[in-house]
Every structure is written in structure tokens, then in C-alpha cells.
Amino acid sequence: MSEPGGRGRRRGGLLWPILALPGIVWLCLFFLVPFYVVLGVAFGTVDPLFLTPQPEWNPARWDPQAFEFVWEGLAAGGGFRTVFVRTFAYVAIAVVISLAIAYPVAYWISRYGGRRKVLLLVLVTYVLTSLLDNDSWSAVILVTATSVTSVVALVSSHARERFVRMAISLSLLTVLLATIGAAADARTWLNLASLIQVSLLTLAMGAVLRRVVSAPEVGSRTILGALSVYTVLGILFTFVYGTVDRIQGGPFFEGLPDPSGTDFIFFSYTTLTTTGYGNLVPGGQPGQLISGLEMMAGQIFLVTLVAGLVSLWRPGEGIRRHRERRGEG
Questions:
Q1: Measured between alpha carbons, how far is 76 from 63 in angstroms, rounded to an integer?
Q2: Alpha helix positions (H), 43-78
Q3: Cβ atoms within 10 Å of 56's Cβ, excluding its own
Q4: What is the pLDDT of residue 1?
Q5: Distance separating alpha carbons of residues 163 and 39, to the nearest angstrom
Q6: Distant-in-sequence, close-in-space partners of 217: CB < 8 Å, separation ≥ 6
Q7: Nearest to 252 by CA among 242, 261, 262
Q8: Residues β-bridged to residue 302
Q9: H-helix or E-strand containing 21?
Q10: Which three-class secondary structure state does DSSP give residue 253?
Q11: Is 80 exceeded by the pLDDT of residue 308?
Q12: What is the model's pLDDT at position 3?
């Protein structure tokens, strides 16, 4: 006889492997495939007329002569060894820096993130959106990050299982569409992925907002949830601006024909907070309409929800109750 809730635990046990699937696919795609290409070129042949490498994709027909030539060049020194040593040094430095940054951050989020986990993932997504352009292979990284953030937000908000499954399916679809768009250099697929990603972020933050509004009392978790929603608003409009820029004929910003991802997220947050430095201005519609909606959304959210929650928050109330319960025990 199975234990009550055993079925739910089995389903929950599959959730995190499914969430890790985009990252696993990403690693396989960008390690195994390039490594196989390198092997195909290394064990291929050389065109006798143009003296260019001819890759051989069939492993049964690989010719080790070119590899042996390079290996002999490494052993003899000279240009081959210099290139090899520099490449090895650059790769080693990149790996060490990546591990030094990624592992402590990932461990801290998973071990100590707790109620701050969603907000931390949102901040990581913000940093990636600030550093990377939402185009080509960089868009695949951004889509993967926002997908993970959206699904974790739904899980943390105790959303219904069917919504979590739908979010996972949409996340996998957006990663696939972004990958196809990057490989084929076709913006249509990337635009579809961005639109689905905006819908997914809206669904996830709607679940977080519902959890915040329906909370019986205002605590740190409620405040962090509201801050997460407010921060995601800026990221969400950043995706919208980037999609509009790719779809419309003219430039999105006036006087800036080729904006970067940094420009879009900077403009989004200056608009959301109504800071308005004035260095980036939409050149026409629908950019002006969307930016006006973001201004109103940001101000209404701050004035009504965040301000109301902060006024009701009593930081020491939880500690006092905990001490009272310990005293009664």
C-alpha cells in the first residue's frame, strides 16, 4: 500500500530534472557538437587544389595523417606549440573564472536562498540581460535563464501542477525556437521565442503577485515577492522593446540606429521608475505607447502595492511570536 502523497512526491522528484534539462541540452549542444566538428576537421583531408581542410563526418573514414602532422609539430616546437599553449592557457583561465563565480553563487542560492530564491534568480536574469544582446546565441542564454526563473517562481508560488507543466513545456519550446533562430540566423524564430517568453514571465509573476496579495499577513516573504514582481516588470518590457525593434522597419530609438541589449534594459528601468534621463527616446509608435504603459504600471505598482505592503510590515513581529511560542513551550 503506497503512502499518501507518494504520487505527488514522485511527480515532484521529476520537476527539478526537467528544469535542468535545458542546461543539459545546452551543454551537449555547445560541447559535443563542436567537439565532433573539430574531430571531423582534424581527421579529414586537405583539398589538393586550394589546400583547404575538407572535414570527414564519417568516423569510419577518418584519416589520422593530419592529426599526426600537428602532433609532430607540437613535439618539435615552433608555431604549433605557441598556439596550443596560448589556447590551453586561455581556456584554463576561462574555466577557473567560470567555476569561481558560478559554483559559489549556485551553491549559495540552492543552500541558503530559501524565500529569497526567486528574487536572486530575477537579479541573475537582470545581470545577464544587461550584459548580453537578445540576439543570436546570446538570446538562447537569456531565454534559458528567464525560463528557469519563471518555472521556479511558479513552483515557489505553489501554482497548480498543470500550470507548472505548461510553463516547463513553454520553456522548452522557447529554448528550442531560440536555438533554431540562432543556428539559422532567422529572427522570426527568435521573435516567437521572445513573445512566448513574455507570456511565460507574465504568467509566473501573476502567480507570485496572487500569492503576495492573498497572504494573510505581511512578512519578509511578501515584501520579497512584491520586489521580484517589480523587478521582472523591467525585464519583461525589455523583451518587448527588443522584439518590437526586430519587427518594425525603422530604429526603435531616435538617433540610435543599432541599439544593444544594454540600451533596452537601461531604457526599460529608467521608464519603469520614471527617472527619464532623456538620452534614449522611442522614435515613434508602438514604442511610445508601450513605454507609456510601463510608466503607468511602475508607478501604480509602487504607489499602491509596494507602499501598502511596507506600511503594514512589522519586521519584529515574527521574532516576537517565535519567542512567545518558545516561552509557552
A1: 21
A2: 65-76
A3: 18
A4: 43
A5: 43
A6: 317
A7: 242
A8: none
A9: helix 6-27
A10: strand
A11: no
A12: 47
Cell of 182: 540562432
| CA distance linking residue 253 with residue 302, whole number of Å | 27
Cell 509602487, located at residue: 302
Per-residue pLDDT at 272 exceeds 50: yes
CB 241 within 8 A of CB 267: yes
C-alpha closest to that of 150 among 79, 198, 113: 198
pLDDT digits (tens, 9 = 90+) for 91-119: 788 777 766 766 666 665 555 555 566 77
Q: Is 46 helix (H, G, I), strand (E, B) or coil?
A: strand
Q: Chain-centre distance of CA 47, in angstroms?
A: 42
Q: Amino acid identity, residue 253?
A: F
Which set of grid coordinates corresponds to residue 4?
499518501
Question: Are the C-beta atoms of 133 and 182 separated by less than 8 Å?
Answer: no
Domain residue ranges of the chain, discontinuous segments joined by +: 120-313
Residue with the three cell numbers 507602499 = 307
- Compute the distance between CA of residue 322 and CA of residue 319 in angstroms, rounded to an integer: 5
Query: DSSP letter at 304?
Result: I
Give residues with Cβ within 8 angstroms of 132, minimum separation 6: 138, 139, 141, 142, 261
Partners of 46 in the β-ladder: 53
Q: How many residues does the chain have?
A: 329
**What DSSP character marks residue 306?**
I
The answer to whether 151 touches 18, Cβ cutoff 8 Å, is no
Cell numbers 530604429: residue: 251
